[in-house]
Design brief:
Oligomer: single chain
Number of helices: 6
Helix content: 25-40%
Order of helices and strands: EHHEEEHEHHH
Structural class: alpha+beta
CATH class: Alpha Beta
């Protein structure tokens, strides 16, 4: 990606296997930022498989400045039957505190937008906690809050219960 005039030495690239330990650090920092550090079960060996294994479920781009990774975006492809086209769901977005306010986040989002357009994807979406200052940046770039769509999650024991299995049976 071309450098941004606001941050001339920052560039974005797809993550490499060698970036996985740094990405795992940033995921933990994001969990800590949200006060959920103890809930984060991500380790770099797990992340390596999910990004670079035989059936990757996740993709990543990193922002580098002066040879150091200062930001990341973790994402995966979605699909819209109404658009009849894929899209991008942003799972995690993180910029180191010392790199914030320098355009790093915008550079990351711009690269994802370019990727989406170049690949014929019709959407770039994700969820943002209400206290995140990123919300105003998303709105300023045309982001619409999808008030009529609510996010629900079934996980843990509830997910097992839905299968009809007992939690002890699933562990065997």
């Amino acid at each position: 990606m071309k450098n941004n005039p606001r941050s001339p030495s920052t560039h974005v690239r797809p993550a490499r296997v060698t970036d996985v330990p740094r990405l795992a650090e940033m995921i933990q920092a994001l969990a800590d930022f949200h006060g959920e550090g103890e809930s984060c079960r991500m380790t770099w060996p797990i992340l390596r498989i999910q990004l670079f294994g035989t059936d990757p479920t996740l993709r990543a781009h990193v922002a580098e400045r002066d040879g150091r990774i200062t930001g990341m975006v973790l994402w995966y492809r979605t699909y819209s039957t109404w658009d009849a086209a894929p899209g991008i769901h942003v799972e995690d977005f993180y910029v180191d505190p010392e790199a914030r306010g320098q355009g790093t986040g915008l550079i990351l989002m711009t690269e994802l937008a370019r990727l989406a357009v170049d690949q014929g994807y019709t959407r770039l979406e994700g969820q943002v906690i209400s206290s995140n200052p990123l919300r105003s940046a998303l709105v300023s770039h045309g982001g619409d809050q999808m008030d009529v769509w609510e996010t629900y999650r079934i996980d843990g024991d509830d997910l097992l219960a839905l299968t009809g299995r007992e939690p002890a049976a699933a562990a065997m």
